[in-house]
Specification:
The complex is a heterodimer of chains A (257) and B (212).
Chain A: H1 6-50, H2 60-70, E1 71-77, E2 85-87, H3 99-110, E3 119-124, E4 129-136, E5 141-148, E6 155-162, H4 176-179, E7 198-200, E8 210-212, H5 218-242
Parallel strand pairs in A: 7-8
Antiparallel strand pairs in A: 1-2, 1-3, 3-4, 4-5, 5-6
Helix pairs in contact in A: 1-2
Chain B: H1 2-16, H2 32-37, H3 42-66, H4 75-97, H5 99-105, H6 107-110, H7 116-124, H8 131-161, E1 163-164, E2 167-168, H9 172-176, H10 188-205
Antiparallel strand pairs in B: 1-2
Helix pairs in contact in B: 1-8, 3-4, 3-7, 3-8, 4-5, 4-7, 7-8, 8-10
Classes of the chains: A alpha+beta (257), B mainly alpha (212).
């Protein structure tokens, strides 16, 4: 057979591509449950890390057990702040929201529709609340988890991750020297007003509302700053509403009209 | 009888040449990028070595099976489709069963497709040889690649982090005495320097590689 004819070449390549596509589709479908389980455990692991729960060298099953042991409930709340509701997965356990869910919620904030959002809050047995943030970095999405102490204003820990920031520069947001700065910072200023936490280029000089930016990672640092402001802003009313003592006189009581 | 002997001589050559005399990294200088990027720790280097070995072996095998039917004009494209399929399969399997390793290797698993060793062996060997022999040739070249990766990774992990497979092997007492991990070791440039040293050592042993 003439393997150099046009007809042969076209048929050959078409059949090859269809066969390869079928093999890959089968493999993707077959491996999907295991991959999704890994992603879920990773999210749990990040949430636990933000809350300061040590989890060195734990297997996936141990992390899952630890997570359900530490986390009392998952809530979702809109920017209105008084419509928190508990969400459970199909097994009745606290729901875990993947990064893809944060992306959807983030687009609501960007469109100014944060009152329709359902932003997750992971409530720990020890009173900590962990909330996610999400935003656009330099090359791809960045996200993170911020743990708040019982006063709903002081950060007890934070952790960040990214899809593909520049290694050695922006990627440093996922490393300890950056995220460990957040512990002890506050999202309220001296007067009790919400100011978020700023990622300051050139150094925050120990401000209780700011952390140092990553040298050489200006755009990624700014992205962290913007995401913090947007997401923590969306949680602001919720934190005010569920704080036992009003932090200032301007707290509006939710009305049920 | 002599034919048999020639066959076994050939087989021996296919299996052993890529390990030292024709090593894809230190002699052919192929696949350098990934060997710089994934050799900070031994665990990542081993998984990468294994992945490349599987991809080169299986791709060579499959292409060799198809070698008589491949239309010559789209030869490279057909090879790429086969290699890409293997790489995606390896990537998906790692994501499902070795998630943390797959995360630390990140894009480099996907980039196996651009590793010149894979295409090089298909073009140079699999297109002209039987499937069984091509499979062995691919595996042997992957092994030769992996060998260099492992050597570089061992040096870098010991000197850069004081550990092997993540286990501390340099005792704390040495650190207390003033020893420090070498920060340069964990950066890619040092992998290049190490590779240079390996090539230097090999060329001083194997005189026929030296240029005039």
């Amino acid at each position: 057979m003439n393997t150099n004819s046009n007809v042969y070449t076209i048929i050959y390549t078409s059949v090859l591509v269809i066969v390869v596509a079928a093999i890959l589709a089968f493999a993707a479908t077959f491996l999907k449950p295991a991959q999704e389980a890994n992603v879920k455990v990773e999210t749990m692991s990040k949430i636990l890390a933000a809350a300061g729960v040590a989890q060195d060298n734990l297997s996936n099953d141990e992390i899952i057990a630890l997570f359900y042991n530490e986390v009392a409930a998952t809530l979702t709340v809109s920017a209105k702040g008084y419509d928190a509701e508990e969400v459970v997965d199909k097994d009745g356990k606290p729901q875990i929201f993947p990064v893809s869910y944060l992306k959807v919620q983030s687009s609501l904030i960007a469109k100014g529709q944060q009152d329709e959002g359902k932003f997750p809050v992971y409530c720990f047995n020890n009173g900590l609340k962990v909330v996610p943030i999400y935003g656009a970095g330099l090359w791809g999405p960045i996200w993170g988890y911020i743990a708040f102490a019982e006063d709903n204003a002081t950060v007890s820990g934070a952790i960040f991750d990214h899809k593909g920031e520049t290694p050695g520069l922006g990627a440093k947001i996922a490393e300890k020297p950056f995220y460990s700065q957040f512990a002890g910072k506050s999202i309220l200023d001296e007067a009790g007003e919400f100011v978020s936490i700023s990622v300051v280029k050139g150094g925050a000089n120990g401000s209780k509302n700011g952390v140092d930016a990553v040298s050489g990672g200006t755009i990624t640092s700014k992205a962290v700053d913007t995401s913090l402001r947007a997401w923590l802003g969306a949680y602001r009313n919720y934190f005010l509403a569920c704080t036992p003592m009003p932090l200032n006189e301007n707290v509006e009581e939710p009305s049920n009209e | 009888m002599w034919r048999n002997q020639a066959m076994s001589e050939n087989l021996k050559n296919v299996l052993l040449k890529p390990i030292f005399k024709g090593n894809p990294i230190s002699v052919l200088v192929l696949g350098i990028c990934s060997s710089l990027a994934v050799t900070v720790q031994l665990k990542g280097a081993l998984v990468m070595a294994l992945s490349v070995t599987i991809v080169t072996g299986l791709s060579s095998f499959v292409v060799s099976l198809m070698r008589k039917s491949i239309p010559n004009r789209v030869r490279i494209i057909v090879q790429l489709v086969v290699v890409a399929m293997m790489v995606i399969l390896v990537d998906q399997v790692l994501k499902a069963y070795a998630y943390s390793v797959s995360k630390s290797l990140s894009v480099y698993i996907g980039l196996i497709i651009t590793n010149c060793i894979v295409m090089g062996r298909i073009e140079a060997f699999a297109l002209g040889n039987k499937p069984g022999l091509s499979l062995l040739d691919g595996l042997a070249n992957g092994f030769g690649y992996g060998l260099i990766l492992v050597v570089v990774a061992i040096v870098r992990e010991i000197l850069g982090s004081g550990s092997i497979f993540g286990f501390q092997i340099i005792p704390q007492a040495v650190y207390n005495a003033g020893y420090m991990n070498n920060g340069l070791m964990i950066l890619p440039p040092f992998a290049l320097i190490l590779l240079g040293c390996i090539i230097w050592i090999q060329r001083s042993i194997q005189k026929d590689l030296q240029e005039e």
